[in-house]
From TrEMBL, chain A:
Pfam families referenced in this protein's UniProt entry, alphabetically: NADHdh (PF00146)
Protein name: NADH-quinone oxidoreductase subunit H
InterPro entries for the chain: NADH_UbQ_OxRdtase_su1/FPO
Keyword Thylakoid in annotation: no
GO MF terms held by the record: NADH dehydrogenase activity
Organism name: Streptomyces montanisoli
One GO CC term, this protein: plasma membrane
Entry similarity comment: Belongs to the complex I subunit 1 family.
Keyword annotations from UniProtKB, A to Z: Membrane, NAD, Signal, Transmembrane, Transmembrane helix
Coiled coil: none
UniProtKB/TrEMBL annotation, chain B:
Residue stretches spanning the membrane: 6-26, 33-52, 58-77, 97-116, 136-161
Subcellular location: Cell membrane
Top-level taxonomic group: Bacteria
Catalytic activity: a quinone + NADH + 5 H(+)(in) = a quinol + NAD(+) + 4 H(+)(out)
Keywords assigned: Cell membrane, Membrane, NAD, Quinone, Transmembrane, Transmembrane helix
Name of protein: NADH-quinone oxidoreductase subunit J
Species per Swiss-Prot/TrEMBL record: Streptomyces montanisoli
Membrane topology: Multi-pass membrane protein
Function: NDH-1 shuttles electrons from NADH, via FMN and iron-sulfur (Fe-S) centers, to quinones in the respiratory chain. Couples the redox reaction to proton translocation (for every two electrons transferred, four hydrogen ions are translocated across the cytoplasmic membrane), and thus conserves the redox energy in a proton gradient.
């Protein structure tokens, strides 16, 4: 059974999220180095973190008449929402706050990214940046509904919105096994709300970086951190939703949580690197014509199983 | 109601009102939209503190999506160029003042006139289930009807708004494949 943690978990959960995100960034960099034929050692892993001091020291760029307030609010929302989403994610048997509407909380925090990225695109008063923000909304309209149905499938299976209950309801058989469509759609959703890999459309090269094009220094750093934090948070949430949480033989619950989270994160990093960029207009048709009917049918499966029980 | 809840209600209720006022005093479409969003997020928090976390979180979730989409449309369709110029949310000032005063007075009067029911029995552990039963139990027919009406409205509005029909897509004999669409889709129909 999942229980709410002591006060210090409030600090530990974000710290672990940062570590996971840093690990994903380092792994991505090592794979980059290997692909480029450089040595894939610790130096390659540290390489992206050199951008940290550089970003902190960079002189900020400003175009005429930016909406600084909305810009800063938007940029802050992305990483802050990612950190807040971890409140309900159990690690082993402990969550910071195992809310009765945990799934909804995660979903609401994830949707805040919509507001954050659009504002980050709007703020600088620059065309490419604004187009980047609009692109994320187009992508959002495509990925959000299938993702919601994927979350609803897991919640329906456990007949609860409490993340701990969902993990506990998977005694014997993971939801990933008998709800594979929901699992895959959820993972695609994670890549999408992290705007990484195939869903890096809002930051596309054809837009000179899109929402990132006019972000410099700390702003750039926060947006980049936000996307990797979201990837890590999504990977951590996949474990209680679809992979049985901390359940497993021999090892303690926290160890299983960690192993499963790292495995999902590895899969996501590989997906980020392997899959080609997809335009929002193409993905929106796939999402609405194929994924929404599929995920609705997927939601029907646990509903029927629950009725038969 | 305990002290924590009361403090939380004040800390959520006052910003909700402040952002609500800002909606009518700010002069940028984007700022107005997001002031409204901030106000509604505070309202979601208030509903959560009042013991309906499901409805509270749904308000936050839905309003974020709705307001962001609304920002796009408001900026696109504002009368001045693209909603990018300074603007005001106040129109028909005298009439609006009268109507809003009357509505406000009626709602405040309602607070004091309505005989609010007291607590009967203990609070349920999880109010989500009660909210679901209240909506989906005796009101199932209403909800189903509402669902169909909403869907029919959306489909109808889209059909009325679009200039193109199936003959434009599939040709006069409906045998043209792939369909002739202005934008390429992802599934190659």
């Amino acid at each position: 059974m999942t229980e709410s943690g002591a006060w210090w978990t409030l600090l530990a959960a974000p710290a672990m999220l940062f570590c996971l995100a840093a690990l994903a960034v380092a792994a991505n960099s090592v794979l980059d180095a290997r692909d480029a034929g450089r040595s894939a050692g610790p130096a390659a892993a540290m390489r992206p973190f050199l951008a940290l001091p550089r970003a902190l020291l960079t002189q900020p760029r400003r175009l005429p008449a930016p909406d600084v307030l909305l810009w800063r609010a938007g940029i802050a929302i992305v990483p802050v929402a990612a950190v807040l989403s971890t409140l309900v994610i159990p690690f082993g048997n402990v969550a910071v706050a195992d809310l009765s509407v945990g799934v909804l909380w995660f979903n609401a925090m994830e949707v805040l990214t919509w507001a954050g990225l659009w504002l980050a695109g709007w703020g600088p008063n620059a065309a490419f940046s604004l187009v980047g923000g609009y692109r994320f909304l187009a992508l959002g309209l495509a990925y959000e509904l299938p993702l919601m149905f994927a979350l609803i499938s897991a919640a329906t299976g456990a007949q609860s919105l409490r993340v701990g209950d969902i993990a506990a309801a998977q005694q014997g058989l993971w939801y990933a096994v008998w709800m594979p469509v929901a699992f895959v759609v959820y993972l695609a959703g994670v890549l999408a709300f992290g705007f990484l890999g195939p869903f890096a459309y809002p930051t596309g090269r054809d837009l000179a970086g899109g929402v990132l094009s006019d972000a410099s220094g700390v702003e750039w750093l926060l947006l980049q951190a936000g996307r990797w934090l979201w990837l890590a948070a999504g990977a951590a949430m996949a474990v209680p939703l679809f992979l049985g949480g901390g359940a497993g033989p021999l090892l303690p619950a926290w160890a299983w949580s960690l192993i499963k989270t790292l495995a999902v994160l590895a899969v996501l990093v590989v997906a980020v690197r392997r899959l080609p960029l997809v335009r929002a207009d193409r993905y929106v048709e796939l999402a609405w014509v194929v994924l929404i009917p599929l995920t609705i049918a997927q939601t029907l499966v646990p509903a029927l199983v629950d009725l038969a029980r | 109601m305990d002290v924590t809840s009361t403090v939380l209600l004040v800390f959520l209720g006052v910003p909700a009102l402040v952002f609500g006022v800002l909606v009518f005093t700010l002069n940028s479409m984007a700022r107005v939209t997001f002031a409204l969003l901030a106000s509604l997020v505070c309202v979601g928090g208030v509903v959560t503190v009042l013991g309906l976390p499901y409805l509270g979180m749904v308000i936050v979730l839905m309003m974020v999506m709705e307001m962001v989409i609304m920002a796009v449309f408001m900026i696109a369709y504002m009368m001045n160029p693209a909603g990018l110029m300074p603007m005001s949310m106040l129109h028909n000032k005298r009439g609006a003042l009268v109507i809003s005063s009357v509505v406000f007075a009626a709602l405040v009067a309602g607070i004091f006139v309505v005989p609010w029911p007291g607590h009967a029995g203990a609070l349920p552990r999880d109010t989500t289930f009660q909210a679901g039963m209240a909506l989906m139990g005796p009101q199932m027919l209403t909800m189903v009807t509402l669902g169909f009406v909403l869907l029919a409205t959306m489909v109808g509005a889209t059909v009325l708004a679009t200039r193109r029909g199936r003959y434009d897509r599939f040709g006069d004999d409906l045998d043209q494949r792939p369909a002739r669409d202005p934008a390429g889709g992802g599934v190659g129909r």
